[in-house]
Specification:
The protein is 17% helix and 30% strand. It has 6 helices and 27 strands. The chain has helices at residues 13-22, 157-165, 204-214, 229-242, 260-267, 300-318, and strands at residues 10-11, 29-33, 46-47, 57-58, 62-65, 74-80, 93-97, 109-112, 116-119, 122-125, 135-136, 147-149, 170-174, 178-184, 188-189, 200-201, 218-225, 245-249, 269-272, 274-275, 284-288, 291-296, 328-333, 345-354, 357-362, 379-383, 395-400. A 6-stranded mixed sheet has the order 8-5-7-6-10-9, with no helix packed on it. The structure holds adenosine monophosphate and magnesium ion. Residues 183, 185, 187-188, 200, 202-205, 249-253, 255, 297-300, 369 line the site of adenosine monophosphate. Magnesium ion (MG) binds at residues 184-185, 250-251, 298.
């Protein structure tokens, strides 16, 4: 057996992730309009400037009453809908009131319509009302001065709704990382070109740009660089000048035309040259000033897995998120799993809930050039290094890459 020729130490996955995240600090803040802030991370908290609700509102459809009138019949004086106001009521009076309408002055409770009898312009509660019944007091949802959304929170639809409710038009969020994407390889032609001879179409560029878009980041394709040091260096240098993260694919293994590692080392500082896992051992990570450089392996499966496992958490951290790692869950092997002898193998798998258990099955042959092995995959199952297959039923760790479907909500096995 030849001895290892690579001069780069082989880091365990966890150590590599820690090292990458140590170099990824949240980007500076900027002001962004509310609706454009979806998916962004707050750099400063949102403080309520008004009470919610701003008036005492009924929580039900019913009758606004004075609790002190007890079980006595009340004279019914019209109706108030949400958005309307009504004149005050006096002793022995009541007003029909709809959900969300403001309580009229003089009233201190609402009797639900189901709990009152109405006849001849008179309403009679079936039980004595208590002050405050079926009311939302001023500021009961939130008070002026409350920290409504903390710094570091990612703004989802609910947060956008809350901002709208509070009349907040702009928020201060971390800047999104700009990502420059570069493909390398003498054999690679643009996806829409017709390859001749031993050429192949670029799939890493389009897949990477699509992943960035799906994850809410901004990617820019800088082009395909031949396997010439000057050409690759020039594109990477351009990426460093205009982006926060440069992602290349190809040229990181030990072939004679694998030039990325020395170029990264020349333009910056190389931190990772090898990671002890499959598929993606030669993943390369460096920094050049504030810019993070990732050299993905060329094999499309390795490229995507490395992007999801190592680049995405770094991008999320740059965007200001604290919890950036994908979920690691315990699952059950739904079929025998064949390990790699020398390092953990992150196999592409489909995870689904079956009878209350998360079951994982691989997507079939796992060759790292076989992008098809990722089609439909929503998980990576971590098969520890070994010689013997893990039997079906073995408990395994899996990393969720996408939503998990199941059948329990509808109460039937599919
Ligand atoms: P490399 O890492 O450059 O040695 O490439 C490893 C394998 O991945 C080779 O078979 C390449 O042809 C293939 N490959 C590299 N880059 C791409 C790409 N952008 N799209 C599709 N296949 C690629
Ligand atoms: Mg190559």
């Amino acid at each position: 057996m030849p001895t290892e020729v690579s001069p780069y130490p082989m880091l365990p996955v966890e150590e590599a992730l820690r090292l990458i995240l140590r170099h990824a600090a949240p980007l500076p803040a900027e002001r962004v309009a509310r609706q454009a802030a979806l998916g962004r991370v707050l750099a400063t908290p949102v403080i309520a400037t008004e009470d919610q609700p701003p008036f005492v509102a009924s929580t039900v459809d019913g009758f606004a009453v004075r609790a002190a009138d007890g079980l006595a019949p009340r004279r019914l004086r019209g109706a108030i809908r949400a958005g309307e106001s009504a004149a005050p009521i006096g002793p022995g009076e009541s007003v029909r009131i709809m959900t969300g309408a403001p309580l009229p002055a003089g009233a201190d409770a609402v009797v639900m319509v189901e709990w009152a009898e109405q006849r001849d312009g008179v309403v009679v509660p079936e039980a004595p009302p208590k002050p405050g019944d079926n009311l939302r007091p001023i500021g009961s949802d939130l008070r002026a001065g409350d920290e409504v959304i903390p710094a570091g929170a990612r703004l989802g639809p609910v947060e956008i709704g809350l901002l709208a409710a509070l009349g907040v038009r702009e928020v201060t969020v971390h800047r999104q990382p700009r990502v420059a994407v570069i493909t390398t390889g003498d054999e690679i032609v643009e996806a829409d070109a017709t390859p001749t001879g031993p050429a192949i179409r670029d799939s890493n560029g389009p897949a990477t740009l699509a992943a960035l878009a799906e994850w809410g980041f901004v990617g820019e394709f800088l082009g395909i660089a031949r396997d010439k040091a000057e050409e690759q260096e020039a594109l990477i240098q351009r990426g460093i000048e205009r982006a926060d993260v440069v992602v290349t694919s190809g040229g990181v293994s030990v072939g004679t035309h694998d030039l990325i590692k020395p170029i990264f080392a020349k333009l910056g500082e190389l931190h990772i040259g090898r990671i002890a896992f499959k598929p993606g051992k030669p993943l390369t990570f460096a920094t050049a000033g504030q810019t993070l450089l990732f050299g993905l392996p060329g094999n499309p499966v390795s490229a995507y897995v490395c992007l999801a496992l190592f680049v995405r958490p770094a991008l999320r951290r740059l965007a200001g998120e604290q919890d950036v790692l994908p979920a690691l869950v315990e699952a059950v092997a739904g079929e025998p799993l064949r390990p790699a002898p020398d390092r953990p193998d992150y196999q592409r798998a489909i995870a689904r809930w079956e009878s209350g258990r998360l079951v994982v099955r691989t997507t079939g042959p796992q060759g790292s050039s076989r992008l098809r092995s990722l089609v439909g995959a929503n998980a990576l199952v971590i098969v520890p290094a070994g010689r013997e297959p893990l039997p079906a039923g073995t408990s395994v760790d899996a990393i969720l890459l996408g939503p998990v479907s199941g059948d329990r909500l509808l109460g039937a096995e599919r």
